[in-house]
Specification:
With 338 residues, this protein is an alpha/beta fold. It has 2 domains: 138 residues, NAD(P)-binding Rossmann-like Domain (Rossmann fold, 3-Layer(aba) Sandwich), CATH 3.40.50.720; 185 residues, Dihydrodipicolinate Reductase, domain 2 (2-Layer Sandwich). It is 30% helix and 25% strand. The chain has a 7-stranded mixed β-sheet with strand order 10-11-9-12-15-14-13. A 6-stranded parallel β-sheet has the order 5-2-1-6-7-8, sandwiched between helices. Helix 1 crosses helix 8 and helix 3 crosses helix 8. The longest helix is centred in the last third of the chain and has 17 residues. It binds NADP nicotinamide-adenine-dinucleotide phosphate. NADP nicotinamide-adenine-dinucleotide phosphate (NAP) binds next to helix 1, helix 4 and helix 8. The site of NADP nicotinamide-adenine-dinucleotide phosphate has 28 residues, from helix 1, helix 4 and helix 8.
Length: 338
């Protein structure tokens, strides 16, 4: 008989948590019991899983007892507070926050890129930053063919990357502007509707913001290339869901665009989307709700003989967070580690 698991979702009422619920259902994850956990604010709320109503519970040491697996998507401070307790109670935790990503004891896993890293865990496995996951899925197969020497990434990140409330705020702002009123700003630092601004994560003394530094550090860890040269500029754009990225890659040797195209056509987790005649390439609306990262507009960098440019879009709540986490759990099951 197929083994079934007692699962907890910490942050079940959030953008990533709700997607986790959908994916566990869609992918028929073998569940014996599902506990949906949040803060006091949402305790008592009813959510639906597999046509059954499940009551959301406020997280506590008591409700974390007896779980086999906890998916956490409630922010870094919540993960730091509760995941060690869940692990001490016998669970494996897959964490969507940035709390443990750079901890040398914690694997940082994109199943299409470094599945073997999942083995060496001490109870917690980290899910990488969303823009980083999307980029790594697209560039790792190219790096395997010819080593990448330098990456320049420019991101166009949707409102939902900042959570369910940010997505709702942009809709209200758009309507206010259309009605001739001033947009209200509560969740994001500036109006995002009909606007864009540099990523709203805290600035580092170097002039980079945290989101950009996550891309640098996490890509190096996932790809197992501690000195890979990488720079990023992260921008929040008025798209509701799915992030886009313009990526410039410099390789150790010239890389023919057709060869890159052929590799990406067969790469796991990638869908090649390009029709140069119709100017048809990946778009966030078309990436929304899809599992693969859409990649296209692969072209020779005119400024460098060993350079390639590409464009990608991916649903960052799905592959950039919830799907990647569920795939890590599936990987653990497949390897008999869960
Ligand atoms: N959104 C994305 O695209 C994305 C992608 C990758 C990673 N992530 C990461 O995933 C995490 C969640 O992001 P999100 O976008 O889903 O955020 P969100 O929509 O704001 O949801 C936050 C969730 O955390 C819960 N929560 C907040 N404070 C809590 C507390 N003190 N104790 C227990 N639960 C608490 C909330 O419960 P209440 O309903 O009770 O407030 C809610 O369920 C963050 O760490 C984020 O960085 C997000």
């Amino acid at each position: 008989m197929r083994k079934t698991y007692r699962i907890g979702i910490l942050g079940a009422t959030g953008a990533v948590g709700e997607e986790l619920i959908t994916l566990l259902q869609e992918r028929k994850f073998p569940i014996a019991e599902l506990r949906l956990l949040s803060s006091e604010r949402s305790a008592g709320k009813q959510l639906v899983f597999d046509d059954q109503s499940v009551t959301v519970q406020s997280v506590s040491a008591e409700v974390l007892k007896g779980l086999d697996l906890v998916f956490a998507s409630a922010g870094g401070a919540v993960s730091r507070q509760w995941l060690p307790i869940a692990v001490a109670e016998g669970a494996i935790a897959i964490d969507n926050s940035s709390a443990y990503r750079m901890d040398p004891e914690v694997p940082l896993v994109v199943p299409e890129v470094n599945p073997e890293d999942v083995v060496q865990h001490c109870g917690i496995i980290a899910n990488p930053n969303c823009t980083t996951i999307l980029m790594c899925v697209a560039i790792a197969p190219l790096h395997r063919a010819i080593p990448i020497r330098r990456i320049v990434a420019s991101t166009y990140q949707s409102a939902s990357g900042a959570g369910a409330r940010a997505m709702a705020e942009v809709k209200v702002q758009a309507q206010a502007i259309l009605d001739g009123a001033s947009p209200n700003v509560e969740v994001l630092p500036y109006p995002l509707a009909f606007n864009l601004f540099l990523h709203n994560s805290p600035m580092d003394g170097s002039g980079y913001c945290e989101e950009e530094l996550k891309m640098v550090r996490e890509t190096r860890k996932i790809m197992g290339e501690p000195s890979l040269a990488l720079t990023a500029t992260c921008v929040r754009v008025p798209v509701l869901r799915a992030h886009s990225e313009a990526i410039n890659l410099e390789f150790a040797a010239p890389f023919a665009p057709d060869k890159a195209r052929e590799i990406l056509r067969h790469a796991p987790g990638v869908m090649l989307v390009e029709d140069f005649d119709r100017n048809y390439f990946p778009m966030p609306l078309e990436a929304t709700g899809k599992d693969p990262v859409l990649v296209g507009r692969i072209r020779q960098d005119l400024s460098h003989t060993c350079g390639l440019d590409l464009w990608l879009c991916g649903d960052q709540i799905r592959k950039g967070a919830a799907l990647n986490a569920v795939q890590i759990a599936e990987l653990l099951m497949a390897r008999g580690l869960l």
